[in-house]
Amino acid sequence: MDFSDLNIQVFRIINDLGKDYPPLNDSAVFVAEYMVYVLALAVILYWFTRTNKNRIMIICSMISFIVAEIIGKLAGTIHSNHQPFAELSNVNQLIEKAVNNSFPSDHTILFFSFCITFWLFNKKTGVFWIILAFCVGLSRIWVGVHYPADVAAGAIISMTSAIIVYVTVPKLSVINKLLRIYEKGEQVILPVNNKSKSF
């Protein structure tokens, strides 16, 4: 069995779960499509704790995502494939999506870039985010819009990017300087006396 066959076989196993357990499909659709709003809300909440650690974490997350997305686009020029529902028969497609290059998974890149960074900065609460990222990746296969290889490539690219950014970016004086400038302006607009504790 070659890699392509294995990729399709694993896709079938996961995607067919939606046929075997229809009551779980709504949850899979929510995670695949709408969990991004939960992530966006978390980013806003972390930022407005107004602690240096959380703000550096969000900055690193954003940079990690940008770097991973660029690498992902480059990877997509080397290898490309359409979504499973466009290439295979009898796919349990649960959400609408335009047919284009699905390699690697952009959703996976987004979630793993942020969630791995969250974990690197806070191992205790970061476990939740790691689980969430894996659930999002799995859900994209479940709803029929990505192959396992699309998700795995996105996760690997994002994890690599997140680790490199975590090791390098917080040490850059320009990042800390720009953050201090921003915080001075923020203090004028939204003054606070005591900074909230990070969570």
From TrEMBL:
GO terms for cellular component: plasma membrane. The chain crosses the membrane at residues 28-49, 56-78, 98-120, 127-145, 151-169. Residues 59-166 form the Phosphatidic acid phosphatase type 2/haloperoxidase domain. Pfam families: PAP2. SUPFAM superfamilies: Acid phosphatase/Vanadium-dependent haloperoxidase. The keyword Transcription regulation does not apply. The keyword Transmembrane applies. GO terms for molecular function: undecaprenyl-diphosphatase activity. Keywords: Membrane, Transmembrane, Transmembrane helix. This is Undecaprenyl-diphosphatase. It comes from Peribacillus asahii.
